[in-house]
Design brief:
The chain has one domain: Acetylglutamate kinase-like (Carbamate kinase, 3-Layer(aba) Sandwich). The strands form 4 sheets. Strands 1-13-15-14-12-2-3-9-6 form a 9-stranded mixed sheet, with helices on both faces. A two-stranded antiparallel sheet has the order 4-5. A two-stranded antiparallel ribbon has the order 7-8. The N terminus is likely disordered. By secondary structure, it is an alpha/beta fold. α2 packs across α4, α7 crosses α8 and α10 runs parallel beside α12. The longest helix is centred in the middle third of the chain and has 25 residues. It contains 13 helices and 15 strands. The structure holds adenosine-5'-diphosphate and magnesium ion (MG). The site of adenosine-5'-diphosphate (ADP) has 17 residues, from loops. InterPro entries: AceGlu_kinase-like_sf, AcgluKinase_fam, ArgB, Asp/Glu/Uridylate_kinase, Glu/AcGlu_kinase, NAGK-C. This is acetylglutamate kinase. It is an enzyme of class 2 (transferase). One of its GO terms (cellular component) is chloroplast thylakoid.
């Protein structure tokens, strides 16, 4: 199918007619150079985390102790000058985003692999260390299914929504607010960050009302966000980690879509960016072909793709929440591949970016 949607740019040969460039970078050659250099470094075969790159550069500067493998890395991969250049060329990005809030949704399939998860967390800590203010919002469907099964409760879905009876809601709350949330908090702490784990019920961060389709049980539609606690935490350099369990304002927990929760939190915080990390490269024209990715989509383009059935299933709440958060003042929204190493850093600190950007 040919895609003639105005304001969309596809790679992979479907359409090359119109190429919106990220506005902040368009007329700024130093950004382009910085982007390429850093992204090359991040992509470099066998490159370790950017945090490691920074740490190694620091060892060189400080004349600290170096082991043989580090010496090998320095000489084989980058010269000391290369690596320091990479850092200095990232400066415009760091200056641009310093002090800015970035809401990141992480969950589902992209969170299953422990190595990938540790990598995402390390990138998050790096961002916080350089003065960017990340807020992590997470779901955890696969882990909920594991625990439901262990407890002899069969996971049950209707129109893509989890049928959440009372027993299931208990498990959702325990697993998301407990195991999944605390495992992310622990990983952040272990990577040298300072995390505070919360769920939407804490201080009514996420308020919701039960959906009208009563047969799906305690599933909520987000009605509001109280962001004061999150603002206090980020101002004090903590990384808030928020599980997507909402309060109905009367003591009942409700299961809400984590993308939607992240979008509303981003809007309430007037975040610089909303980044949804998932288990695909971005929005694809053909779901079986990662090269058919839409790099940039407008709101209208998204609506047309939903109408054509190209955007479906779990991608619909992602697109919806991007649209809603953009209309409420969030400056940019992105759907990126949580399975790709350093995708978060590539999106924030390089010109190339990754995944699909949805713009107004
Ligand atoms: P998450 O756990 O990250 O929320 P979901 O499974 O809810 O992930 O949503 C992502 C899924 O959306 C993809 O794995 C894919 O199956 C589906 N999807 C539907 N339409 C598209 C599309 N056009 N491009 C990419 N993925 C799509
Ligand atoms: Mg989903």
């Amino acid at each position: 199918m040919s895609a003639s949607i105005q304001g969309t740019h596809l790679v992979g040969g479907i359409s090359r007619g119109w190429t919106p460039v990220r506005p902040i970078h368009r007329h700024n050659p130093p950004f382009l150079r910085a982007g390429r250099c850093l992204s090359q470094a991040l992509r470099c075969q066998g490159a370790s985390t950017a945090a490691e790159t920074i740490a190694k550069a620091r060892v060189v500067r400080d004349g600290g102790t170096r082991d043989a493998s580090m010496h090998h890395l320095e000489t084989e991969r980058f010269s000391a000058l290369d690596r320091v250049s990479i850092l200095s060329e990232a400066l415009p990005y760091l200056q641009r985003f310093r002090g800015k809030t970035v809401v990141i949704k992480y969950g589902g399939a992209a969170m299953k692999d422990p190595t990938l998860k540790a990598g995402v967390v390390a990138d998050l800590v790096l961002l916080a260390t350089v003065g960017i203010r990340p807020v992590l919002v997470h779901g955890g469907g696969p882990e909920i299914n594991i625990w439901l099964t262990k407890l002899g409760i069969e996971p049950n879905f209707k129109n893509g929504l989890r049928v959440t009876d009372e027993a299931t809601m208990d498990v959702v709350e325990m697993v998301l607010g407990g195991r999944v949330n605390k495992s992310l908090v622990t990983l952040i702490q272990q990577s040298g960050g300072r995390a505070v784990g919360l769920c939407g019920k804490d201080s009514d961060i996420i308020l919701a009302r039960q959906m009208v389709e009563k047969e799906i049980g305690f599933v909520g539609e987000v009605t509001g966000v109280r962001s004061d606690l999150i603002k206090t935490l980020v101002a004090d350099d903590y990384i808030p980690v928020v599980a997507s369990v909402a309060s109905n304002g009367a003591g009942q927990a409700l299961n809400v879509n984590a993308d939607t929760a992240a979008g509303e939190i981003a809007a309430a915080l007037q975040a610089e960016k909303l980044i949804l990390m998932t288990d695909v490269a971005g929005i694809l024209h053909d779901r079986n072909d990662p090269s058919s990715i839409y790099r940039v989509l407008t709101l209208r383009g998204c609506a047309e793709l939903v109408g054509q059935g190209i955007i479906a299933g779990g991608m619909i709440p992602k697109v919806d929440c991007c649209i809603r958060s953009l209309s409420q003042g969030v400056r940019a929204t992105h759907i990126i591949d949580g399975r790709q190493k350093h995708s978060l850093l590539m999106e924030l600190l390089t010109d190339e970016g990754v995944g699909t950007m949805i713009t107004g």
